Amino acid sequence: MDMHLQPLASACHVSGEPFTDGARIVSYLVRAATLEIMRYDLLEAQAAGFSPDGFVACRWVHVFATRHGHEDAARALKMSAENLFITLADPTNELNVESTRLVQFLALMLERKKQLRPRGRNADGTRNVYEHTKTKQLFEVPVGDLTPEFFVAVQEQLSVLVGAPKPKAEPVAAPAP
């Protein structure tokens, strides 16, 4: 599952004010009416009045840090399920309900692909701990109920990010003899 997204902006989408190191940034992934996936980055102070056109797939809050020249900007443009998980599950990010659900699903998917290893639960039992196999970084994912409603909601979010599944072809009835 690969998506091509815009990199983190250098200025607020709403006010145009440049981001400074340490500023709290709210990022949105939105499917526009054209079915294109858009990323909007804005200062946290501007988020209350922001209402993007389209369906919001997820939203997260993070702290802005200036990019260094040696970082691979082209790699940041290609967002895989693994990159999205690492971005959303970063302990410095604050997640909402939709983003938490997406992180839970991505953790399950990446565990199945052996890109994450389960390491049990945290001390109070409210979060599953996963180890990223490449970096050995630990991520804590809120425990959730994997109900049919959970998967329906995740399916809606994923259809926004990667497109709706193609409808199955109707079987052609054989003519009567």
Number-wise, the strands total 9
Shape: globular
Number of helices: 4
Summarize the biggest pleated sheet: 4 strands, antiparallel
Tell me the Rg in angstroms: 19 Å
Helix content, binned percent: 25-40%
* Secondary structural class: alpha+beta
- Beta-strand percent range: 25-35%
- Low-confidence region ranges: 73-78
What is the residue-averaged pLDDT? 79
| Total separate domains | 1
Succession of helices and strands:
EEEEHEHEHEEEH
Structure, described:
This protein is of the alpha+beta class. The chain has one domain (2-162). 25% of the residues lie in helices and 28% in strands. The protein has helices at 73-77, 81-89, 97-112, 148-162, and strands at residues 2-4, 24-31, 37-43, 55-63, 78-80, 94-95, 116-121, 127-132, 138-142. A 4-stranded antiparallel beta sheet has the order 3-2-4-6. A 3-stranded antiparallel beta sheet has the order 7-8-9, covered by helices on one side. It is globular. The model is unreliable at 73-78 (pLDDT under 50).
